[in-house]
Specification:
- By secondary structure, this protein is an alpha/beta fold.
- About 40% of the residues lie in helices and about 20% in strands.
- It has 2 domains: about 150 residues, Rossmann fold, CATH 3.40.50.620; about 140 residues, HUPs (Rossmann fold, 3-Layer(aba) Sandwich).
- It contains 10 helices and 10 strands.
- A 10-stranded mixed β-sheet has the order 3-2-1-4-5-10-9-6-7-8, sandwiched between helices.
- Helix 3 runs parallel beside helix 5 and helix 8 packs parallel to helix 10.
- The longest helix has 28 residues.
- About 5% of the residues have low confidence.
Length: about 290
C-alpha cells in the first residue's frame, strides 16, 4: 500500500507526524509526503533578474524538501519511506488531488475552523475530501499501534448504490480492525393506528423495519472476512448526528461521499463532510467508483 501524507510546513509538524505514525504502521504503508506551498509573490522581472528569481525559488524548494525528508523520518522506517514532493503553483487541495495517481490513500489533517468562514472558504481537508478520487483519511486524534485492537464503525447508506459496504470490509482488513456496519434510518413519522395492518403498532412497524435493515446490511457485507466482521446495526435518527454520537465508542469511522457540489453543499453539507469535520476520531472517507 502507498499513502500520500500532506504536510503543512507553515506550522510545527512534529505533532502531526507523531499522530500519523501509528496509522501508517497499522497499514504497513510506503509513505510519500507532499507540501503544497506558495512561493512568495515577486514583482515581474526580466533578463538577468530572472536568474536571481529562479535561484531563490530553487533554494526555497530545496529547503522545503529537506523539511519533508525530516518529516518522512518521523513517519516511517527507512524501508517504507517514499518521496518528498513540493508544489508551488496551484491551490493546495488541487495540487494534492492531482498527485494521488498510483497511491491508495491520502492522509490529511484538519484545523477545525467553524462558522461562515468555513462555508465560504472551506479547509484544504474538506476540499480534498470532496474531490479526491481515492479514499481520504482525515486524522482527528490517532489510531492505536498495530499490536492493539481497533474497532471501526462503517456507516452504510442502504438507499445508495455506493459500494461502501463491500469496500469498507477491505479497509477494515488493511487497518486490522473489527468493523460494525450501521444504517441510520431517518426517523419514521407517527401514523394513525387505523392506517396500520391489523395487529400492528407503530413500534412494531419500526422494529420490523430495522430488522429488515439489518438483514440487508448482512447481505451487503457478505464479502467481509470473518476476522473483521462485527455487528450489523440499524437505528432511527439523523445520520450525521447518530454517527457522531457513536464515534466515541470506536477508533475509526468509515463514511462515503456522493460528490455533490454547489450551493446545496455549501448550506447543507453532506453527512460525510459533517462527520469528517466534527468527529473526535479519524474518519475514512471513501468516494464512489469512477
Amino acid at each position: 500500500m502507498r499513502v500520500l501524507v500532506t504536510i503543512d510546513l507553515s506550522e510545527a509538524h512534529d505533532t502531526f507526524c507523531a499522530r500519523a505514525r501509528p496509522v501508517l504502521d497499522r497499514l504497513g504503508a510506503t509513505v510519500d509526503v507532499l507540501y503544497a506551498g506558495r512561493a512568495p509573490a515577486l514583482p515581474h522581472v526580466h533578463g538577468e533578474l530572472m536568474g536571481v528569481v529562479d535561484a531563490a525559488r530553487g533554494q526555497l524548494q530545496s529547503a522545503w524538501e529537506d523539511q519533508l525528508v525530516e518529516a518522512l523520518a518521523l513517519l516511517a522506517p527507512p524501508e517504507r519511506r517514499g518521496v518528498p514532493i513540493v508544489t508551488f503553483d496551484k491551490p493546495p487541495a488541487e495540487a494534492i488531488v492531482e498527485r494521488v495517481v498510483g497511491r491508495d490513500l491520502v492522509l490529511v489533517g484538519t484545523h477545525g475552523r467553524q462558522g461562515m468562514a468555513r462555508a465560504w472558504i472551506g479547509s484544504v481537508a474538506e476540499r480534498v475530501v470532496r474531490t479526491c478520487p481515492i479514499p481520504v483519511l482525515v486524522l482527528h486524534g490517532t489510531l492505536p499501534p498495530p499490536e492493539k485492537p481497533l474497532s471501526m464503525l462503517v456507516s452504510v447508506d442502504l438507499v445508495s448504490p455506493h459500494p461502501l459496504a463491500d469496500t469498507a470490509g477491505v479497509w477494515a482488513d488493511h487497518f486490522r480492525a473489527v468493523a460494525d456496519a450501521l444504517f441510520v434510518h431517518r426517523k419514521m413519522p407517527l401514523v394513525d393506528t387505523e392506517d396500520l395492518p391489523l395487529g400492528q403498532t407503530w413500534s412494531s412497524t419500526v422494529k420490523e423495519t430495522l430488522e429488515e435493515n439489518k438483514r440487508e446490511l448482512a447481505t451487503r457485507t457478505a464479502s467481509w472476512q470473518a476476522a473483521v466482521r462485527g455487528e450489523m446495526r440499524a437505528e432511527l435518527g439523523e445520520p450525521a448526528d447518530t454517527i457522531l454520537a457513536e464515534a466515541q465508542k470506536y477508533g475509526l469511522i468509515a463514511v462515503s461521499t456522493h460528490g455533490r457540489t454547489g450551493v446545496t453543499r455549501m448550506w447543507m453539507g453532506s453527512v460525510a463532510e459533517r462527520v469528517a469535520r466534527m468527529s473526535p476520531v479519524p474518519v475514512l472517507v471513501i468516494p464512489p467508483k469512477p
